Amino acid sequence: MSLLTELKRRNVFKVGIAYVVMAWLVMQVADVILNNIQAPAWIFQVLLLFLAVGFAIALVLAWAFELTPEGIKRESGDSESAPVFGKSSQMMTYVIIGMLALAASYLFITRERSIPDPAVSIDDLVSRPSVVVLPFANISGDAAQDYLAFGITDELIVGLQRLGNFPVVSRNASISYGVTDISATDFAQNHGASYLVEGSVNVSGDGIRVLANLSGAGGNQVWAERYQLEGGQIDVFDVSDELVSKVAGAVLDSEVKRIQREDHPPSNAWEHYMKALKVVLEYDQKRYEMARQHLDRAVEIAPDMAEAWWALGELEVMNYMTQPFNDETELEDLYGIIEYFRKAHELSPFHAAACGCLGYMLTAVGKPDEARVVFEQAIEAKPLSPDLRVDYAIYLAWVGRYEEALENVALSLKLGPTSQDRAGVWTTRSLAAFAAGNEQEALDAINRAMFVSHHTFYTPTAVAMLYVLGKHEAATSLFRDMQSFFPDLQPKNRIFYVLLKPIDDTLEARRQQGDPDGPADVEEIFSILRKEISDPTNQ
Question: What's the pLDDT band for 112 if we cut at 50, 70, 90?
Answer without folding.
Answer: very low
